[in-house]
Amino acid sequence: MNGKGAALRRRVTELGGTLRKLGLPVGVDAQALALRALADVGVTDGEDVRLSLRSIYARTRRAQAVFDEIYPLWLRGERLSPEPESPGQAAGGMEIGSAETGGEARATSTAREAGGEETRPVPRSHYSPFAAQGPTGALPPAQQGMAEAMRDAAGFLAALRMGEGRRKRPGRRGDVDLRRSLRRAHATAGEIVHLRRQRRRLRPPRVVLLCDLSRSMSGDDRKVLRLAQAMVRQSGRTEVFAFSTEIRRITDRLRRREGAAALRNLGFAYGGGTRIGFALHRFTADWGRRLLGERSIVVVVSDGLDTGEPALLRGALAGLRSSVRYLFWLSPLAGTPGFEPVQSGVRLALPYCDGFGDALDPRALTKLVYSLKGRRPS
After folding, report:
1. Cβ contacts of 153 within 8 Å, gap of 6 or more
2. Which residues of 271-298 are buried (b: 16+ CB within 10 A; e: fewer)?
3. Is 140 within the bounds of a domain?
4. CA 30: distance to chain centroid?
5. How confident is the model at residue 370 (pLDDT cuts 50, 70, 90)?
6. 249 and 319: one domain?
7. Who contacts 25 (Cβ-Cβ below 8 Å, separation ≥6)?
8. Is there a domain that residue 81 lies in?
9. If you ran DSSP here, which 8-state letter would residue 263 be given?
10. Which of the pair, 35 or 226, is modelled with greater confidence?
11. pLDDT band for position 129 (cuts 50, 70, 90)
12. Domain that includes residue 45, residue range
């Protein structure tokens, strides 16, 4: 193995060992798999490297949160030597210092002096996922915003799962899983004592985001795009459309993680006037047959400042509402003090919407689910 290969092996092993000390189930087989994966994907694309290591080392939501905090430090070459878990540590095996101590943990050491024993505190440094991010003790704003959007999107999708799929998973109730029951019987001399059961998985909903990227949304378009990208990354059943005076599908651009570059070359779908009714009508006509149905959820993200025909918008909203399970509306103006739905688009949309919220709220999608409590789709 050449020098670069040996260095890469050492660095990947160091990352796996750090994650194992933080409580993640990272064994030798996972580290070997990580090295093979990097040999296949290469190390030229940083995002491919991150995703490969994340998929191998972090297979649960908790593990992914720990990995996302550790990885930037590892990538910068900082030395990571977290302490083993102790009762005073936070969830995830990481000890977080208090504000008074500045994140500095204290241990006791025994020093023999004349006349007896005396215990005195000895400072010991610990890894802190928050303090290590920078002088302010916080993630960079862009990363923090995306992390919040990802959590919000995950909660939204989990709360609105609907319909049973064909695949099954182990469960406490459901059909008897004969294969797993027989395998379990090996421990009881072939006698089936414990019945294993399985149930069908709930399928995630089809989510369609219709994002207003007109001039009036120019100050908030990046935040709207971040919300859309989080939804695309969380579910392959998400479709995103941008509209202004025209409407364009941008799902593939977001799936390629283009970020703000996804706004380039959108023509009249970005930065122009606002014709919400026309955009919704075109969406229903061109993509409705494939994307709309009883398991579909449509989320319109717009400030409601519409220059189109009110009758066209009213008809498009009525058609959407009758074709989907839920219809939501998010406005970046909803969080301003003293907000009143006086915008023409919002005023017309409210009678047809199952929920209305603030598009700039980090938990906007989750709060839409709360608005459905006690209600049933019509």
Report:
1. 227, 230, 231, 233, 234, 235, 365
2. bbebbbbbbbbbbbeeebeebbeebbbb
3. no
4. 24
5. confident
6. yes
7. 63
8. no
9. G
10. 226
11. very low
12. 3-75
The answer to whether 326 touches 354, Cβ cutoff 8 Å, is yes
DSSP secondary structure letter of residue 105: E
Phi, psi (degrees; rounded to nearest 5) at 356: -135, 135
Separation CA 376–CA 22 (nearest Å) = 43
The amino acid at residue 322 is S
Overall pTM surpassing 0.85 (yes/no): no
Structure tokens at 118: 């005396």
110 part of a folded domain: no
Report helix angle 364-371 to 221-234, nearest 10: 70
> Quick one: pLDDT at residue 135?
44
Residue 324 burial by Cβ neighbours in a 10 Å radius (0-12, 13-18, 19+)? buried
Q: Same domain, yes or no, for 212 and 288?
A: yes
Per residue in 332-357, pLDDT tens? Answer: 998 888 888 888 889 999 999 999 99
The 10s digit of each residue's pLDDT in 314-330 is 999 999 999 999 999 99
Are residues 177 and 210 both part of a single domain? no
Task: List the structure tokens of 107.
Answer: 């241990």
d(CA 124, CA 142): 32
Specify the pairing of strand 206-212 against strand 175-176: unpaired
Residues 70 and 174 in one domain: no
